[in-house]
Amino acid sequence: MKPAAFEFCRPSTLEEALAALQHDDAKILAGGQSLVPMMNFRLVRPERLVDINNLSDLCDIRDEGDAIRIGALVRHAQAAASTELCGAFPIVTEAMAHVAHVAIRNRGTIGGSLAHADPSAEWPLLITLLDGEIEIAGSDGTRIVGAEEFFFAPLVTAIEETEILVSIKLQKPTAGTGMAFTEVAQRAGDFAVVAAAATVHTKNGLITRARLALGGVGDFPLRMKDVEEKLEGMPPDAIDEAIRGCADVLEPNDDMHASSHYRRSLVPTLASRVLKQAAIRAAGVT
Amino acid sequence: MTNETNITLTLNGEKVSAKAEPRMLASDFIRDVLFMSGTHVGCEHGVCGACTIRFNGKTARSCLLFAAQLDGANVETVESLGTAIDMHRIQKAFRKHHALQCGFCTPGFLMTVSEILETLPLSTDDEIRDALSGNLCRCTGYEHIVRAVRELVDERDGVPA
Ligand SMILES: Cc1cc2nc3c(=O)[nH]c(=O)nc-3n(C[C@H](O)[C@H](O)[C@H](O)COP(=O)(O)OP(=O)(O)OC[C@H]3O[C@@H](n4cnc5c(N)ncnc54)[C@H](O)[C@@H]3O)c2cc1C
Ligand code: FES
Ligand code: FES
User: Fold this and answer.
1) Cβ(A121) to ligand 1 under 6 A?
2) Hey, is the C-beta of A120 within 8 angstroms of any chain B C-beta?
3) pLDDT on residue A286
4) Which of A6, A30, A38, A247 could potentially form a cystine with A112 if both were Cys, beta carbons 3.0 to 4.6 Å apart?
5) In this entry, which stretches build a coiled coil (chain B) (predicted)?
6) For residues B126 and B146, is the Cβ–Cβ distance under 8 A?
7) In the CATH scheme, what architecture does the domain B5-80 have?
């Protein structure tokens, strides 16, 4: 229950941090809310730990006009309380309430959550739903990876070992868009058994664009493109018809929290709830 | 690789300095090096909340911080609240409502309560339970802890008893 020895670096600039990662077995320390438990269990034992908490450029949420940029070191609690971010994306406040507990939300970061890529985690689901663009810095510049190309497997992402996730850009929704999030977990603050999130844009009572994403049912959050397409041009009454059978293609894992069957059976219920709630919010009725 | 580093921090209002290996957890550093044993250690993976401290004003799990990260920080532990003869009002409320039995979880609860009284409305008991959900207690069944916090919230909000 104690971590193995390591060398500790505390860079104060991105350049220094990238230089410190040029090492055979270095790991980034952000909020430490996933990495330190794994180190305490000795599931990971990096030789060098690069603490990026002093990179102050990564700590802000910025309004860029048509988009919001979230620095990788923005804490869960900071995001949930941000008027810039939650004004455009009220779903963030709704989802963050389900992430762990007060003290963990004070420390854990969006960058750490995306890099950790737990299949049931809330940030990866939101970024998948909202088509986030993930900015990753390496020694030869930065690159942008779309949410759908970012997650490879549980705990595996597009970030190379010598790279740092620096920010996430979310395009602001058009007027008339509603959003909703819900999840089933064993206890408040536990990782979700299944989580669902949706955005719905309506015009004259018809759905012009719907997005649906699910967490906890695969190796990473999944977009349900079939359902999204079926809903285009339909009234919100068509939601249940559009999601019928959508869980049949999913192959969720069995684990100590829930069986694959139970996870699959939650999908239509949660998908229906978030799509309907988002449609109501889109119509301006809360 | 086992080189010790110098760590200087403000602990409960006083500047202190000590050495620790980078791998030493802040919880062990506070207890075994700084000899403040009020902070308890239950699980060492962030689940139980017994090790909760305030790190630059905000609650944090000290078992998920390294001692080296405390350098330059302002840290408050349960010892910052009150003493056996001069208890803090949170401690008094816990005593009055029997919000502890063995007391193992209590330091963590007290630190969490000290923060949430400043930051959250806590207008319903559900909200209190949700805000306390990161602290585990194996003795009380939580009911008495919620009652203690309810009284503190009412006192804060000027609600007559
Ligand atoms: C009891 C408990 C309950 C929890 N419940 C939930 C929950 O319900 N939902 C949920 O989503 N999370 C939950 N978490 C996890 C929490 O949200 C973490 O904060 C998050 O998963 C990781 O973020 P971090 O900043 O703490 O990252 P760290 O733990 O510091 O790092 C995690 C991983 O990401 C890498 N990394 C971190 N930052 C970067 C970066 N900028 N660029 C590249 N790599 C990086 C690290 O090297 C490491 O491999 C829980 C944690 C605990 C202890
Ligand atoms: S000892 Fe830190 S949360 Fe349990
Ligand atoms: S009083 Fe014993 S664990 Fe809470």
Assistant:
1) yes
2) no
3) 53
4) A30
5) none
6) no
7) Roll (3.10)
Report the separation in Å between the CA atom of B44 and the middle of ligand 3, taken as the mean of its atom positions.
17
Q: What percent of chain A has pLDDT over 90?
A: 97
Whether B53 contacts B75, CB under 8 Å: yes
Probe residue for ligand 2, chosen from B31, B40, B41, B59 as the CB with the greatest number of ligand atoms within 8 Å: B41
Write down the mean pLDDT value for chain A.
96
Does this chain's domain B5-80 share its CATH topology with B89-157? Answer: no
Cβ-based burial of A253 (10 A; exposed 0-12, middle 13-18, buried ≥19):
middle
Give contacts of A5 with chain B, Cβ < 8 Å. 1-2, 21-23
d(CA A52, CA A50): 6
Q: Name the token pair of B86.
A: 């001069």
Residue B1 pLDDT > 50: no
Residue B135: per-residue pLDDT: 98
Q: How far is A112 from chain B (nearest CA, A)?
A: 14
Domain spans, chain B: 5-80, 89-157
